[in-house]
Amino acid sequence: MTKTILKEKYSKEIVPSLMKKFDIKNVMQVPKVQKIVINVCVGKAASENNIKLLDIAAEELGLISGQKPAITRSKKAISNFKLRADQPLGAKVTLRGDRMFQFMERLFMVAFPRIRDFRGVPTRSFDGRGNYTLGLKEQIIFPEINFESVQSLHGMDITFATSAQNDEQAKELLKLLGMPFRN
User: Average of pLDDT values for 113-129?
Assistant: First the structure.
């Protein structure tokens, strides 16, 4: 795989900037994005007993991420939701390394500008340990998805797991990488 623009920018510009801002002495202590987890849940597949919706969602997630997703199953039965134990519900993908940086480039530079009335992502979605979770309402903002082949719209959760010690460091890292936060 080739080195991405974002990966080069991180090593040449972002690392020195973070070291200066947070007074970090060692390069190994600089916060970095460790992994990105993309999760899709298709509740309609469980309630309507239509497993084909889940297969389509997993296939679309594979196109978006560039690797095969793992099918997630319910842990226990909940009768109010008509859910049985060990029933397939969704799909997830964990991206690391070059694929992670390629996905970030496509998300920041291609997908976000395609969202209608986009004003930036919220800043309150940090978990207190330097991880950021973002929810998308539609999968069609990614250019890999063909509009004509979409049978149903579904959202996805994207979690950025960083090595930052706190939310302030994680926010600065993601901002320098190109995450468009709201003002």
Answer: 91
Of the listed ranges 80-89, 104-113, 164-173, the one predicted with least confidence:
80-89
Domain count, the chain: 1
In this prediction the pTM is 0.89
**pLDDT for residue 86 is more than 90:** no
Question: Per the domain annotation, does 182 fall within a domain?
Answer: no
Domain assignment of residue 95, yes or no: yes
Closest CA to 9 of 83, 71, 101: 101
Instruction: Supply the pLDDT for residue 154.
Output: 87
Answer yes or no: are the C-beta atoms of 63 and 85 closer than 8 Å. no
Q: What percent of the chain has pLDDT over 90?
A: 63
Find the mean pLDDT for residues 123-137: 93
Residues in Cβ contact with 129 at an 8 Å cutoff, skipping those fewer than 6 apart: 166, 167
Residue 158 sits in a domain whose CATH number is 3.30.1440.10
Whole-angstrom distance, CA of residue 125 vs CA of residue 111: 19
Range of the domain at 78: 5-177
Pairing of strands 132-136, 156-162: antiparallel
- Rounded Cα gap, residues 107 and 114, in angstroms: 10
Confirm whether 45 is domain-assigned: yes
The Cα-based distances of 143 to 59, 98, 110, 137, 164 in angstroms read: 14, 19, 8, 15, 31
In a domain, 183, yes or no: no
